[in-house]
């Protein structure tokens, strides 16, 4: 009799775990970042769209946010985004591997020299979000911050 209770408990736990994994993978979009395009890290400043980094409107409520990352800064590092905007974020590095994390959201990418990493995010909530580098990149690592303001 007790075996049956434990068996049911075990199956119940398994179900809970699978649900948690499923929800975090699909509902919250915790998927690994993808590397789509290559770029010459020495010519980032001359290569569109990174020759003019920043937020660009691409459609009705759709934007592209192009950010150049280098030791030890994000360019630009102060960004204002209209509430509800669907933003495709492109990042690339001019030197070493950095991270691009928007604290409090599911935006978290590696920034690799030679590659453009991309992720699309809709900003539905107003507020201020801190941009962080979460990949140790040298002496100024802890100073690499920026801010996204959703207004
Ligand atoms: Cu850039 Cu740590």
What key attributes describe this structure?
binds dinuclear copper ion, single chain, 151 residues, 1 helix, 2 domains, alpha+beta, elongated, 5-stranded mixed sheet, Immunoglobulin-like
Can you give a write-up of this model?
The chain is an alpha+beta fold and 151 residues long. The protein has 2 domains: 31 residues; 117 residues, Immunoglobulin-like. The protein is built from 1 helix and 11 strands, in the order αβββββββββββ. The structure holds dinuclear copper ion (CUA). The site of dinuclear copper ion has 8 residues, from loops.
What's the short story on this structure?
The chain is of the alpha+beta class.
Number of strand elements: 11
- What would CATH call the homologous superfamily of the largest domain? Cupredoxins -  blue copper proteins
* Share of helix, binned: 10-25%
Rg value: 19 Å
Oligomer: single chain
Number of domains: 2
Low-pLDDT ranges: none
Quickly name the level 1 CATH class of the largest domain. Mainly Beta
Shape: elongated
Distance between the termini: 60 Å
Secondary-structure element order, N to C: HEEEEEEEEEEE
Round the mean pLDDT to the nearest integer and report it. 90
Structural category: alpha+beta
Please outline the major beta sheet.
Answer: 6 strands, mixed
CATH architecture of the largest domain: Sandwich
List of distinct ligands in this structure = dinuclear copper ion
Helix count from the secondary structure assignment: 1
State which percent range the strand residues make up.
Answer: 35-45%
Kindly identify the CATH topology of the largest domain: Immunoglobulin-like
């Amino acid at each position: 009799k007790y075996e049956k209770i434990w068996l049911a408990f075990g199956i119940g736990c398994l179900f809970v775990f699978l649900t948690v994994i499923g929800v975090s993978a699909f509902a919250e979009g915790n998927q690994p970042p993808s590397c789509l395009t290559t770029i010459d890290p020495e010519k980032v400043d001359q290569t569109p769209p990174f020759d003019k980094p920043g937020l660009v409107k691409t459609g009705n409520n759709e934007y592209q946010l192009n950010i150049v990352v280098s030791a030890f800064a994000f360019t630009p590092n102060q960004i204002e985004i209209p509430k509800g905007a669907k933003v495709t974020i492109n990042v690339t590095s001019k030197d070493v591997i950095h991270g691009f994390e928007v604290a409090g959201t599911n935006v978290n990418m590696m920034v690799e020299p030679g590659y453009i990493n991309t992720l699309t995010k809709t900003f539905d909530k107003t507020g201020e979000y801190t941009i962080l580098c979460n990949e140790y990149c040298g002496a100024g690592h802890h100073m690499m911050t920026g801010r996204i303001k959703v207004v």
